[in-house]
Design brief:
Layout: E1 5-11, E2 16-17, E3 22-27, E4 32-37, E5 43-44, E6 55-61, H1 63-68, E7 79-85, E8 100-107, E9 110-113
Parallel strand pairs: 1-8
Antiparallel strand pairs: 1-2, 1-5, 3-4, 3-6, 6-7, 8-9
């Protein structure tokens, strides 16, 4: 089965994928559910279970370790992105659970994220 949550990290300061970024998935204020490390293409395709119950979750990107390994100072030792899963898309008629792709565009002193496809 495929994970319901995936990610892609791009290091915009060097214009390429950010390999080796550890990402943690947790229930909001609760237990860690999964962790993974971005591959050579900056992607994580297996981050947690195929189906998560409705709720708020946190993805924590270990950006400080990523930059430290490259000898680069950063303002953000980690980046936490909270997401809310409400359930299947209403009216779609599709029994497949929705997929949540959370890309992170990263540089040592700025970042942005969005819900991808």
């Amino acid at each position: 089965m495929t994970s319901q949550i995936t990610s892609h990290v791009l290091d915009s300061s060097v214009g390429r994928a950010a390999e080796g970024v550890r990402i943690h998935l947790s229930a909001l204020g609760g237990q860690e559910l999964a962790q993974a490390v971005t591959d050579s293409d900056g992607r994580v395709s297996d981050l947690g279970p195929a189906l998560l119950p409705a709720g708020t979750y946190e993805l924590v990107f270990e950006t400080g370790a990523y930059f430290a390994a490259r000898g680069v100072d950063t303002f953000y030792p980690h980046i936490t992105v909270a997401i809310e899963i409400t359930g299947p898309d209403s009216g779609s008629g599709d029994e497949t659970p929705p997929h949540f792709h959370v890309p992170l565009l990263l540089s040592p002193f700025a970042y942005s994220t969005y819900r991808g496809t």
